[in-house]
Amino acid sequence: MISLDLFAVILLGVWGCCVGSFLNVVIYRVPEGLSVVSPPSRCPTCEKKLKWFDNVPVLGWLWLRGKCRFCKAPISGQYPLVELTTGVLFAGLTWVYYFTGLRPVFAETGVLWSWPVLAVHLCLLACMIAATVIDAKLYIIPLGITWTASVVALFQPAAVLIGLVGESAGNIGRWWGSLIPVTDMAGTYLAMGAGFGLLVSLLLLKTGAIPLSFAEEPELPEGVDPDDPNLILVHPHPRREVMKEALFLLPVVVFGGLAWWFMGQPFGKVVGLGALPEDPLVLRSFGGVLLGYLVGGGVVWFIRIFGTLLFGKEAMGLGDVHLMAAVGAVIGWRDATLAFFVAPFIGILVVLVTTGVSAVLKGKTRVIPYGPSLCAATLIVMVFRNEIWAYLMPGLG
Ligand SMILES: [Zn+2]
């Protein structure tokens, strides 16, 4: 008799390979603006529909020996690689959560009482795998992918609301080692005020009251390839453009600050709004997800604006902002911020590996997409967050 948790590891490994198969479709079609549901998979060369058993993850590619059944055109090894990677990471993360002691809150609650959180984390993982491959190849992160993870993150407060996780989740209310992102009431008011400010900004952007940044294409010098990824660095007025983004963020900061001050603390504390009689965990976990979304994205955006003003070159992409917003919504603002500061170390490794040490020493660098480093850092934080926090802030254990 194997335990439910071990059964989950095995099942999710197989399920992960199938999810990887879907991610291949996402990676191939989403940047082209095509539907991910129809038409069914076909050979990109001869356009014949694949047989259902050729679609079996990893194995299908192996028994076709990497060639199309009909026209014998080679099929990219990226397909089985993405499938296998997704399967291994799904099983691996589940195993880490329930069998290693690295995430004791998961191990204590077991799959039966923490599966909604595990499901949200695995969804983020799948989105990060797709974002990593697309960003590495095309230097973009499609927003449909990051929004999917952000919306799915709301399943966490929903699971609290319908009682799927809650009392049984142990120390769910404490931020240290807690299962889902939670904040206090002041944080919840702050998040809701800032969220309202974001809606105001979007409305002002829609009506044209706030200008869209980097809207017009910069004029290119003669003989420059318009598809060169290095071009994102040559906009003539990056400082002016990024100030438009600072303007966009102003209502978010103002409304967030006002809500925190008047309803949270210190003012809200005085008039009694800051402390509600019953501890509203559902509200505070919703606040935790919203705050994670806003701070996760906000930290990247702040560094983008600050870096662009400082260096006069566009720093970080808005895709990275959306990515870390999604990460924050899933794992909370503290862990997302931590991941953001782990990412540069991975970025340096990526540069050294992809361009070679000698090229870096000679100063021959090129644009490296940052999304993959952010995703890898996020995965590292998901696995080792207790260890890292215990090291950084020893008093919290
Ligand atoms: Zn073919």
Assess the beta-strand content as a share of residues.
Answer: under 5%
- Tally the structural domains: 2
Mean of residue pLDDT values: 86
Structural class: mainly alpha
Q: What's the total number of strands?
A: 0
Task: Assign an overall shape.
Answer: globular
Radius of gyration: 23 Å
Distance between the termini: 35 Å
Share of residues in helices = 55-70%
Order of helices and strands: HHHHHHHHHHHHHH
Bound molecules: zinc ion
Please tell me about this protein's structure.
The protein is globular, with a radius of gyration of 23 Å. Helix 5 (143-153) runs parallel beside helix 11 (318-331) and helix 11 (318-331) crosses helix 12 (333-355). The protein has 397 residues and is mainly alpha-helical. It has helices at 4-29, 59-63, 78-99, 104-138, 143-153, 155-161, 185-207, 238-264, 267-271, 281-311, 318-331, 333-355, 357-361, 371-392. The two termini are 35 Å apart. The relative contact order is 0.10. It has 14 helices and no strands. 64% of the residues lie in helices and 0% in strands. The protein has 2 domains: 4-36 and 52-66 and 73-160, no CATH class; 181-396, no CATH class. The structure holds zinc ion. Zinc ion binds at residues 43, 45-46, 48, 68, 70-71, 73.
